[in-house]
Each structure stands twice: as C-alpha cells, then as structure tokens.
Design goal:
Length: 128
C-alpha cells in the first residue's frame, strides 16, 4: 500500500510539472541557448536592469527591463511569430517575462535556464 502511495505521488508530481510548461516555450541550458541563438533566427531580449545589462550581456541582446512601465508596450513591438530568446540574471525575471509573452500570444519562447549567472558559470562569451 505504501509503495502504491509513493508511485501515485510521483506520477502526480510529474504530471503537474509537465502541465506548468506552456506550449511553445523552452527552458534550456546556457550551452544549448548559445547554440540556438547562433543557429536559429530570433529576437534576443535581456530583461535585467539597464545597469545589469551594461555590466555584460549576450551579444545581440536588446535590453527591455521587465519592471519598466513600458515593458509590455515594448514587447508588443516584437514579432510574435519569430522566436524570442529571453534571459535575466538568475531566471526569476525571465520566467515572469515568459508568462507575459505567452499571454500576449508569442509562438515560440526560449528561456535561458539560470540566466546570466549560469551563462557566466558555463564560460559563455559576454559583451560589454
């Protein structure tokens, strides 16, 4: 009986985690992110503060700070049919940005898992 309970709990957990992933979104490692950005056309968005952006960013990224008053108006100007690559410092703000973009109808969003912290840790290049 105990074994059945654990198996059921595990299945529920797996299903609920999968349900949280929205269609058209990917959360990928820094290495995968670097390869995708290089290989596939898209819009690269840094949702950190302007100060964080100036301290180092991924080449080609446009800074659209998540907490700016005009964030939603600025992302509305992006092409919703084209892939959007998004990142922040550690992953929290980019997850919020992904939710907003998903609600606004963006078709394909790729999020950097762990943000710039993970990017730097992986030794990926940074532009200043």
């Amino acid at each position: 009986m105990k074994k059945l309970f654990y198996i059921t709990a595990l299945l529920i957990t797996l299903v609920s985690c999968q349900a949280q992933k929205k269609d058209g979104t990917e959360l990928i490692s820094p290495t995968e992110f670097a390869h995708k950005v290089e290989a596939e056309k898209g819009q690269l968005i840094d949702v950190r503060t302007p100060g964080e952006y100036k301290s180092g960013y991924i080449d080609g990224a446009v800074n659209i700070h998540l907490y700016d008053k005009d964030f939603e108006q600025r992302i509305d100007k992006l092409d919703k049919e084209e892939t959007v690559y998004v990142y922040c410092k550690a992953g929290g703000r980019s997850a919020e940005a992904v939710e907003i973009m998903h609600e606004k109808g963006f078709k394909h969003i790729v999020e950097l898992d762990g943000g710039m912290d993970a990017w730097n840790e992986a030794g990926e290049p940074v532009k200043k």
